[in-house]
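Dear Dr. L.,

I hope this message finds you well. Following up on our conversation about the binding site, I have prepared a predicted three-dimensional model of the protein together with N-(5'-phosphopyridoxyl)-D-alanine. For your records, I am including the exact sequence and ligand specification that went into the calculation, followed by the C-alpha cells. Please feel free to forward this to your student if that is useful.
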Amino acid sequence: MNRTVYLNGCYLPESEASISIFDRGFLMADAVYEVTPVLSGNLIELDGHLQRLQLSLDALELPNPLAISDWRQLHRQLVDINHLVDGLIYLQVTRGAAADRDFIFPDSTHTSPTVVAFTQSKPGLANNPLAETGMKIISLDDLRWGRCDIKTTQLLYPALAKRLARKAGADDAWLVRDGTITEGTSNNAYILKDGKLITRYTENAILSGVTRATVLRLAAEAGIPIEERPFTLQEALSADEAFLTSASTFIMPVVEINGQPIGTGKPGPQTRHLRARYLAACRASMS
Ligand code: PDD
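The resulting structure of the complex is given below.
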C-alpha cells in the first residue's frame, strides 16, 4: 500500500513513517486510540470519537496533543489526500519516547506524545455481506484488565479471542465476566427479548461505544423499550434477536452463539430495522 500517513505534525509516505524503539506505546501499550468510520468520503461520528479520546487521555494523565479543530482537520486531510471513499481513520496517541525504558511515567514537560493517524480503505463498508447472513459468536472468559472503559492499545487478549473464535469456525467472541456478558472483543453486545432491547450499562467493564450511544438514541426514538443492565449467556441463548455494534461494523446481527441459533437463526426484524435507521442517520449527517 502507498498511503500518506500522519506522524507528529507531518504527512508522509507510510514507508517513511517510523518511531523510536523507546516509545512507550511500543514498550508498554502506554497509548490510546480511536477508530472513526468514513462513508462516501464523509467522517461519521467524529466528534463522539474525539470526546471519547479526551476521556481516555484524561484517565491516563496524558495531555491532549491537539485541539479539537486540529484533530478534525487532520482527519479531513487524511481522507482527502488518500482519496478515501469507504473505510476507517485510525489514530493513536502514545506517551512518547523517554530516554530509556522505565515503568515510571516520564515528565510530560520533557517527553512529547507520539501522534499517529492513518487511513484503512474498506470498500463497501456499509454493505458488509455479514449484515445479511449474520455473525456466529462464541463465548469466552473475559480475561482483560479492569479498565476496559479506556480505549488503550492493550489488545492482545481481544486478538487472541478473535483467533480462538476463528479456530472454532465463528466470526467473533463475546466475553463473559462474573456470569454476565460484558461486550465483544471489539464491539458492544445487545439482545432483544419480547420487544425489549437489553445491553449492559456503561462502566469500567466495557467501552462506552460511540455507535452504542447513537443506536440507543435511535432505538428510543423508535419506541423500543431499553433495559441497560448486564445479561447472562443463558439469556442471550434464549433471546429473540442479538446484535453487536462498533465503528467498523455499525450494527451486525448475531445469529448463533456457541453453535446454537438465536431466535430463527437469521438476522431479526428489529436488528434489521435498527441497522437501516443507523445507516440512514449516517447518510443524513453527510448532507
Ligand atoms: N473497537 N468495545 C470494544 C472493546 C471496542 O474495541 C469497540 C470498538 C467497541 C465499540 O465502540 P465504537 O462503537 O465506539 O466503535 C466496544 C474498534 C472499532 C476497534 O478497536 O477497531
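In brief: The chain has a mean pLDDT of 97.

With kind regards,
A. P.
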